[in-house]
Every structure is written in C-alpha cells, then in structure tokens.
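Need the bound structure for hypoxanthine, inputs here:
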Amino acid sequence: MLGIIGGSGLTQLSNLDVSHREIVRTPYGEPSGPITFGQLCGKPAMFLARHGYGHTIPPHEVNYRANIWALWHKGVTSIISVASVGGIRADFQPGDIVIPSQIIDYTWGRSSTFHEGVGCTVTHIDFTEPYDRALREAVLLAASDVGVPAHSGGVYAATQGPRLETAAEINRLERDGADLVGMTGMPEAVLARELGIPYAAINVIANHAAGRADSKDGISFAAIEDVLRESMQRVRLVIERLAGCHAQVCEVND
Ligand code: HPA
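Answer from helper R.:
Posting the output first, comments after.
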C-alpha cells in the first residue's frame, strides 16, 4: 500500500476517499497524528501529516521513528514524502517540483536509527543512493503522464531548523554541493531504508534560499504560502497518478 507523508502545504489529501483514521501505538512513542486510510484512484493508500493535522510539530520535534514505524506496521509498501524546500540551484524557481536524488544531512540530536538500545547489535546499512531508484522513476513518469514538469535529481540538504538559514550558510551548502534545502528529509529517509521501505521525495521549491534572488534581503512567508497553495495542486495530481499505477510500482520493486 502506498503511504504519503505530507509536509507544510499538504496536511491532507483531498481526493483520498477516507475509510478510517487510526492512532498507531509504537515502541518509539507517538506518531505525528492518526494515519488516514482510504482509496486513492481506486487503490488503497494511507496518509500521515508530518507536522500534525494542526501543523503544530516543528521539524526537529517530529517523531520520525514513530511515523515510519507506524506506516510500516500498517503495511506500507512504499513511501512518498512531500516537503517544501528552499531552492539553492539557480534554475530552481519557486513553484518548481524536484525529485531529489541525493542527501547531505546537517541535522543533529534527532533519533536517526532503529538499531540502538539494549540488546541491539551494531547494524550499518548502505545509503549510497538514499532514495529508491525505481520509485523515483515511477514518480517522474507519473508527473510526465499528467503533464506536470518536474526536475529529476538534486542534492537535498537537511538542516535542523526551525529557523531558516543565513545567507552565509546557504553559500556553504552550495559549496558542499547542495541544490535545495529543507528541514525534514532526515532522518525520515534513512529510517525508511532501515525498515526496507522504498522511499522517494517530492520537493516543492517554496522560495529562493536565504540570500538568493528575491530572498536577497529576506524570505517572504506570505509569498511562500501562495506558492505552496498553487504547487500542491500539481503535487496532488502526480500522487494520484502514481497511486493509480501503484501495483506496477510494487512489481518494479519486487
Ligand atoms: N530552508 C529550509 N527549509 C525550507 C525552506 C528554506 O529556505 N523553505 C521551505 N522549507
């Protein structure tokens, strides 16, 4: 079953034909909220709002382990993570959709593995390619099928937040090779990998990153809201198309 984790701008999936909501208890504490189950384009799907349904949980306080474990426990077979980001690369404009291909993690103090605690053996996982290749390709195909332009590839920098970055930090991230910046991509991606769940991200460029283009003298939150309201409609189209094809996605992954 396809699972969607929605971030800022996507706290619900309006076209999800909801069957029920369930609060899942996990060994890691409370997820961000109940999981919403239903049918999307005739296929079963589940949805979780990363920041809670009232948008009350900041990026550094999201219980990523509980969220991923809860989706896994309910039988998710792949996860699409939707998140808004700042654009660093010059050709990433507000409103653009990016399917990132790599991650640099600058977060700290977040519980970022299931393999810790009493009795756990030390476990290392391969994370060379942090997003699932077949799922990324399926998202790109779904976007092209519904005529939604999407950039293929980009290096996602995960910052701690909740504050936005300084202009100098963005310059440093760019020197490091980052193309876009957000606060929630890690440890979500690695936790999905630890549980063997194919995971890919749909990132929406909400604004030029700090110090860039029209964010040269500051970032406008009013402008971000307008951009997200419009772009998330396109994201919904892509997800619906992907959900309709989800059985094929599973075949690719098996
Ligand atoms: N930086 C980090 N996270 C973000 C941004 C940003 O500029 N915009 C939206 N999420």
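Comments: The chain has six helices and eleven strands. The domain at 2-253 is CATH 3.40.50.1580 (Rossmann fold).
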